[in-house]
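**User:**
Everyone, produce one record:

**Assistant:**
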Amino acid sequence: MSSDKTTVDTTKAGTAVDAPPAAIPVVDPRLLVREQGFRGYWTEFVRRVKGGELGSMPVIGALIIIFIVFQVANDRFLSANNISNVGYYLAGTGMLSIGLVFVLLLGEIDLSVASVSGLASAIFAVFTTTHGMNMWLAVLLTVLIGVVIGAFHGFFLAKVGVPAFVVTLAGFLGWNGLMLWLLRKTGSLSIADKGPIHLVDQTSFFMGSDIAGAYILATVGVAVLLIGSLVDQARRRKAGVPFRPTSEIILRTVLLAIVSYAIAALLNNANGVPNALVLFLVVLVIGDFVVRRTTFGRKVFALGGSLEASRRAGISVPAIQMAVFAIAGGFAALGGLFIAGQTQTANSQAGSGNLLMLAIAAAVIGGTSLFGGRGSIWSALIGGLVIQSIQTGLDLLNMDTSIQYMITGAVLLAAVIIDSVSRRTQRTSGRA
């Protein structure tokens, strides 16, 4: 009893009370990783893989395997001319895939993009061939029509509540019918190889070995990465948030320079970098900036993560949905013009066949999730490269088209399985 009383007394006197523990500062794990050097990065890499955060690793690994297999089977696969053809032909489908990436980030789907691309080529041909309109003005009007069509689909999704699958399936049928109606008299219209059409054929801004050629483009790409990284580092340092150390920026820049100049040297042995590929890369950079660096891009990711949470956070869900489908329609029209530039004609077969499936497959194989909220604009390039490499490689081996379809389908299924397993692993590890 006396001991208890003593304890109480000393407590009242303030002599036996321990001081409250000092607050432990929270350290961003990214800082710890970078302070530990290579070991820290390796530990973080292992943690991400175990947590299901695979990123682009599976598709890049698949791409390396594809290159090795086809090069062993036919030593012309990695030749300058063949690589140039791969880059040239993936641009048209890639444009459609960029628009689809935006839609997939919402967790939706657009089945109309192939028909819209075919309709765009027909509209452009009618404007220029039938009515003699200025080709650049015709390009602008055609893309704007694609944007309006996409916004039309988005309106029924956002305002009326019609599922995107249904409204875009209706668009797939309806816009294909409108294209056939426009071409009903002849079945096809030739497009003059001049102006914007000549710009996206197999010519090159960076042609010939007597000038720097593709090295100019490689230098620009490396410089953009270096300057952008340094600016981002300075901005983060000023804000007091984690930033990439200069050593990491230099390493990334050096690796990009090695890859870029190697590809440049290869393409300079052919006809340089095709204009279509250059324009496609420019659009990719702009699209990536919009998705990752703007408020609009963050809202798109938010809607893909949770529609209801986004609505409660004050995001105008209908406006974002309509805007995203308008973007998809614009890119579908642009892709149709790229494909028309390859054939220099608009015919009743435009937008048909497996174009829609290949555009969706490119986005998904490249790493954009079908479940929404996760992906990158660069998926259109990586996935398109996988599909076009398979097609070109099998063509070199004189394989039947049926084999191409089966292999592409298997790769698409594998990509979706990896995405599903990755999401399940993230939920299990508490990182979803």
The chain has two domains: 55-203+274-428, 208-273. The two ends are 55 Å apart (CA to CA). Residues 55-203+274-428 form a domain with the ABC transporter involved in vitamin B12 uptake, BtuC fold (CATH 1.10.3470). The longest helix spans residues 401-428.
